[in-house]
Amino acid sequence: MTVPTNRFPDDFVWGCATSAYQIEGSPLADGAGMNVWHRFSHTRGRVVNDENGDIACDHYRRYESDIELMKQLGLQAYRFSIAWSRILPEGTGRVNPAGLGFYERLVDRLLEKGIQPTATLFHWDLPVALDDRGGWLNRDIAGWFADYAESVFRRFDDRIKLWATLNEPWVVSDNGYLHGTAAPGHRSLFEAPIATHNLMRAHGAAVQAYRATGRHQIGLVVNIEPKYPASTSSEDVAATRRAEAQMNRQFIEPAMLGRYPEELRDVFGEAWPDWPASDVEQIRQPIDFIGLNYYTRAVVRNDPGAWPLRAAPVRQSQVAHTEMGWEVFPQGLTDTLLWIKDRYGAPPIYVTENGAAFADPATAAGDVLDDPRRVEYFRTHIRAVHDAMRAGVDVRGYFAWSMLDNFEWALGYSKRFGIIHVDYATQKRTPKASATFYSGVIASNGAVL
Ligand SMILES: OC[C@@H]1[C@@H](O)[C@H](O)[C@@H](O)c2nc(CNc3ccccc3)cn21
């Protein structure tokens, strides 16, 4: 693949990404079952300002005008997630036709507008009915997930050509079961490894199900945050390896190589089981691409008191950070793309999420002051993708996070990642300067960088 020096290949795909619970609203509409983020956000104290996704961006009702905005931006593709509990209100068994109907309308409208729909089956919003049966701690969930996957493959594989099984299983295991900062809010050294393993078994089962009838591409979306040691001391280097294994290799490694990183035994100790080899073989199903979510890097030092990693980030001074406190470090994206290529056999890669939160207050006059740092973030990170491609990485597309300001999980609506501003009181959408910039990138296929 020859990559032009000053633009992207002609078949490179430009899109934006969102997820169901963060933008749709109407979480219980039309027969949908409750999901764990509905229950979590309605539990006092779990989310900033006790905010929730009851309305969010009201996309469930406003999807047609939102797709019009995507068209105006010139988006070629749109990455969204399907809410499991809209399709199967109890998580298994009875299919909810109205739930399928919403995604039918969404997909058909996208196609009418010449925008490729690309779907993620699971973006953290597990049906409560399954959580109440153990959720990711119950081995049966691999079969439950495969059945759910089959119901949507059957309905949409004629129109959706790029599927992802899971979005960032690390967040579910680490935030949801180890630290309790995300739904379902458990804090357990012993539960997290079980959640990890069942998430990956579910991934494998869904890929196997897809191979039986699917005609297009399916992959796994992982968050990778490259870890750089704070010093060359053996303690800091070892801590960095633990942090890198626990976040960056815990999921991609079983999926691509059929093994878990040995450092996980060092992190979890006796809480890390000896998984059956047959399980890990089933996880390692050939996939068509890796979806990479990249936002920042971490500089890591040894910290014996930091449970359970015994590693802690070192904030870098005198450099730009986003509203999330994440360092702006585009070189980390190039490094990560090269790392995936070299370590996992040069798989096709989509950058499925990349973006930045900055405060974008609307003025009294209704204008939106898009922080110029967001444009610079996109410019430098899209350049970083191009650098990796020029170095031989097979990157197929880039999805900006996010199309709309949206519900930022436990941070509620306090963080704005959108290239389109949302006034949550009025639901007014206002494209930001970053939308105009990104629209220019798409129109010129990256030549304006
Ligand atoms: O935080 C921004 C987005 C979030 O809105 C998406 O739903 C999610 O897919 C997403 N993943 C990351 C990067 N991974 C990460 C998530 C939580 C804590 C630390 C890192 C950022 N984001």
List the helices and strands and how they pair.
Elements: E1 13-17, H1 20-23, H2 36-41, H3 59-73, E2 77-81, H4 84-87, H5 97-112, E3 116-122, H6 128-131, H7 141-156, E4 162-167, H8 169-178, H9 191-213, E5 217-223, E6 227-229, H10 234-249, H11 252-257, H12 263-268, H13 277-283, E7 289-293, E8 298-302, E9 311-313, H14 331-343, E10 349-354, H15 372-390, E11 395-401, E12 420-423, E13 428-431, H16 433-443
Parallel strand pairs: 1-2, 1-11, 2-3, 3-4, 4-5, 5-7, 6-8, 7-10, 10-11
Antiparallel strand pairs: 8-9, 12-13
Helix pairs in contact: 3-5, 7-9, 8-9, 9-13, 14-15, 15-16
The structure holds the ligand OC[C@@H]1[C@@H](O)[C@H](O)[C@@H](O)c2nc(CNc3ccccc3)cn21.
Helicity range of the residues? 25-40%
Low-confidence stretches: none
Largest sheet: 8 strands, parallel, barrel
The gross shape turns out to be: globular
- Small-molecule components bound: the ligand OC[C@@H]1[C@@H](O)[C@H](O)[C@@H](O)c2nc(CNc3ccccc3)cn21
DSSP helical segment count: 16
Please describe what this structure looks like.
With 449 residues, the protein is α/β, with parallel strands linked by helices. Helices cover 39% and strands 15% of the residues. It is built from 16 helices and 13 strands. An eight-stranded parallel β-barrel has the order 1-2-3-4-5-7-10-11, surrounded by four helices. A three-stranded mixed beta sheet has the order 6-8-9. A two-stranded antiparallel ribbon has the order 12-13. A hairpin with a 4-residue loop joins strand 12 and strand 13. Helix 7 runs parallel beside helix 9. The model has no long low-confidence stretch (mean pLDDT 97). The site of the ligand OC[C@@H]1[C@@H](O)[C@H](O)[C@@H](O)c2nc(CNc3ccccc3)cn21 has 12 residues, from loops.
